[in-house]
Design brief:
Blueprint: H1 2-13, H2 19-30, H3 34-48, H4 54-67, H5 71-75
Helix pairs in contact: 1-2, 1-4, 2-3, 3-4
Length: 84
């Protein structure tokens, strides 16, 4: 279930986030390291200041909570919201 939602997030991001970033997330999912994949994704998105929709941010928060990630690792993407 979580991996399916992570793949959904990857599909959402694939239209505007560089392909290597999305591919890294998918690789982490394949090797059963979803937590590391989502944390890494948040770090890269924040570092690169990639714009995100409200729906993408909401899904990132939902997945972070489901995976038990520290809130500060996930909340860093909040500033990237373009409001759609």
């Amino acid at each position: 279930m979580i991996n399916d939602r992570l793949r959904e997030l990857a599909a959402m991001l694939s239209g505007h986030v560089p392909a290597p970033v999305v591919e890294d997330l998918l690789t982490y999912i394949r090797v059963d390291e979803a937590e590391i994949g989502l944390q890494s994704l948040c770090d890269v998105l924040s570092d690169e200041e990639e714009s995100l929709t409200s729906a993408e941010i909401e899904l990132i928060h939902e997945l972070g909570e489901a995976l038990g990630l520290p809130p500060d690792r996930i909340e860093q993407v909040d500033e990237l919201n373009i409001g759609e």
